Amino acid sequence: MIPIIDPSDRARLDAILSRDATFSDEVDQAVASILLDVRKRGDAALQELSERFDGVRPDPIRVPVEELEAASDALDPELRQILKDAEANIRQFHARQVQNSWFTDDGDGVLLGQRVVAMDRVGLYVPGGTAFYPSSLLMNAIPAQEAGVEEIHLVSPPKEGGRPHPLVLATAHLLGLEHVYGVGGAQAVGALAYGTESVASVDKIVGPGNAYVAAAKKQVFGRVDIDSVAGPSEIGILADATADPEYVAADLLSQAEHDERASAILVTPHHDLAEAVQEHVERMVPSLPRKKTIETALASYGACIVTEDMEEAIDIMNELAVEHLEIITEDDWSIMTRIRHAGAIFLGPYSSEPVGDYFAGPNHVLPTGGTARYASALSVDDFIRKQSIISYTKERLAETGPSIATLADAEDLQGHAEAIRVRLRRFAEESGDSEPESMTVSVTQSVDAKNK
């Protein structure tokens, strides 16, 4: 079910490495048509598209606050407390990421600095297809709140009655969100990007979704910012002989159940461990509700890779740059320092990947498809802007102005140079000094000199 291979099987490795967020021409064209329709017809398009794709017509599109309160009141008390505990952990972790503006005195009364400003309005997409993800709502909303975003607008596919799943509504209320809309798919992304009569346009769209949602986010990027174009989920487990094969097998399956294109990989120098994991996988899969999804994922993108030694195993993991990386070895911390590429790292036999998905605090929105080589987990940083601040004085400009103008001349941007020289000439006039040559070079003279 999950094959045991060695690193020389490049065909298998290349198949795993080729998983990225690309879309067929059919998906791209369908999404482009949907986005155009939403942009032109607004709410009418949202309602008709929801009726076509979700079988319900949201009316009104925005969920009344009273319904959010009712969903929260109906929430199972035990589940409510678990959500609150998870929220507290996630909020505490992300509060540590908050950055402050800073300024420095550069002498002569010159101040330089960086101002940190939160985005005004962001949009969150919460899936609602075959499963419901209050955890995704927590992970996307909390860093935005900690960043100081004033308005958070939530979209999620409508179910019976034209409303998102009650658990999504209840979680939104627990987080204090009021802008909630019963609309999903590419049309929801279009509404957030362009705005409609009911849905406000936002500055950034975050959150996972199916291929149509991901393609829509990709197409509206530039109009708005997005978190990423996420591909299928993935897990890599780096293990030695000390690892419990049943734990390893269970953790591999925890990601394989997400999607038929999900990837689940064990890399180990120990063939006996690989065989034991393979046996546990075959025993566990038949009892899982998502059996067919798991079997398809493991057949295409699963593997137990047996290496010559741990050095080779680490090299392979760095090449794969997986979304979730578990390290279950005798010396987890030492090996962790040699991992360069991974979205999130889970150390030891008790740091199972779902601990990070739901409860520990770090964000579970992570780079996929090898993008961990350059991308990071969703964080407070994704919801802020950093503005450079420059406050020059007359004295500093008098000192550095000639150099600035000369650099502008070197780039053949005489307008830039003149913007500095007009001030330098004024300084000279005010002081009664004769103007040095560097202050009196005109645009015409510069052009003539260049032509010669």
UniProtKB/TrEMBL annotation:
Region (Disordered), start-end ranges: 428-452
Family per similarity comment: Belongs to the histidinol dehydrogenase family.
Catalysed reactions, semicolon-separated: L-histidinol + 2 NAD(+) + H2O = L-histidine + 2 NADH + 3 H(+)
Pathway the protein acts in: Amino-acid biosynthesis; L-histidine biosynthesis; L-histidine from 5-phospho-alpha-D-ribose 1-diphosphate: step 9/9
Stretches with biased composition (Polar residues): 437-452
Active site: E323, H324
Xref: Pfam families: Histidinol_dh
Cofactor(s) this protein cannot do without: Zn(2+)
HAMAP family, sorted: HisD (MF_01024)
Binding site for Zn(2+): Q255, H258, D357, H416
Keyword annotations from UniProtKB, A to Z: Amino-acid biosynthesis, Histidine biosynthesis, Metal-binding, NAD, Oxidoreductase, Zinc
The enzyme's E.C. designation: 1.1.1.23
GO molecular function: histidinol dehydrogenase activity; NAD binding; zinc ion binding
Classification via NCBIfam families: hisD
Binding positions (substrate): S233, Q255, H258, H324, D357, E411, H416
Record note on cofactor: Binds 1 zinc ion per subunit.
Name of the protein: Histidinol dehydrogenase
Any Gene Ontology CC annotation: cytosol
InterPro entries in the record: Ald_DH/histidinol_DH, Histidinol_DH_CS, Histidinol_DH_monofunct, Hstdl_DH
Binding site residues for NAD(+): Y125, Q187, N210
Residue ranges of coiled coil: none
Role according to the record: Catalyzes the sequential NAD-dependent oxidations of L-histidinol to L-histidinaldehyde and then to L-histidine.
Record keyword Hydrolase present: no
Lineage: Bacteria, Pseudomonadati, Rhodothermota, Rhodothermia, Rhodothermales
GO biological process, one term: L-histidine biosynthetic process
